[in-house]
Structure formats: C-alpha cells, structure tokens
Write a structure and sequence with these properties.
By secondary structure, this protein is of the alpha+beta class. It is built from five helices and five strands.
C-alpha cells in the first residue's frame, strides 16, 4: 500500500495491520472500528470506509457485498488469492461468514463450467443457512 503522509498515519497502519492479521476471514467496519479503539487508535467509521475504498481501488483488499441487507465485508488479498477458489456460507442466525473448501462443490463448479459454459464466481457465491453454533442453540432452546 502506498503510504499516505499526514493525518492518521498510525491509524491507517493499524487498519492495514488488522486486515493482514485477519486475512483468512472477512471483516466489517464495526469489527475494525472496535479493534482500533481497543488499540488506542480510534478512527471514525467514515474514515475507515474511505481507507477501505482506497485499499480496494489499489487491489490490496477485496470488498464483498452479499445480501443487500448487511454491510459489506472486507478481506486482505494475499499472494495466493485463496478466496477466489472457494464458496461461502452465511449464517442467518449470527451473521458469521464461513469460507468453505469443499471438493464436491468444486466438482459442481467444474461441471457447470464444462457442461453449461457458465463460470461461477466463487468469491461471490454464498449459501445461506444456520451455522452449527446457532443450530445447537436452537436445539437447546426448544
């Protein structure tokens, strides 16, 4: 990332550091804001959005918008670009987003490409349902 000179450089570096440290998951502005506050470098949400937009434009971060109801998620792009190669599960209970590496779904993706001439963008493909934690809670509550 090109380093900006001037105001909030420490916060910007903390933001990027947080994204790099959490590159294996999607994160949102609220999580980033809470982290920065806990580190003693609070940053307003508008500024976080601006910084994330710059990182997206520079190809450092990937932005995900899934259902139009919840805010966007962001993920640092590492050299392997692994997130392009798997599907996602979104819990309707807690909102957790899970990366799913599954050979069966990869076979379906390949089948659709070969037999139906359609390329699935796995980075944007989300299955909605209830995660194990939430389904366990529901069984306990019944």
């Amino acid at each position: 990332m090109k380093r900006d000179s001037g105001y909030n450089t420490k916060q910007k570096e903390k933001l990027l550091s947080y994204l790099v440290a959490n590159r294996n998951k999607h994160t949102n502005v609220q999580e980033i804001s809470a982290y920065l506050s806990s580190e003693g470098t609070p940053l307003g949400t508008a500024t976080i959005y601006r910084q994330l937009d710059r990182l997206v434009e520079n190809g450092v971060v990937r932005k995900y918008t899934f259902d139009g109801k919840t805010g966007a998620c962001y993920q640092y792009i590492d050299e392997s670009m692994e997130c392009h190669e798997h599907f996602h599960l979104k819990c309707l209970g807690c909102g957790k987003l899970i990366h799913l590496d599954c050979g069966h779904l990869s076979e379906i993706r390949d089948h659709i490409a070969e037999q139906h001439s359609f390329i699935i963008d796995t980075s944007q493909t989300v299955f909605y349902g209830i995660c194990a934690d939430c389904s366990g809670k529901k069984r306990t509550e019944d």
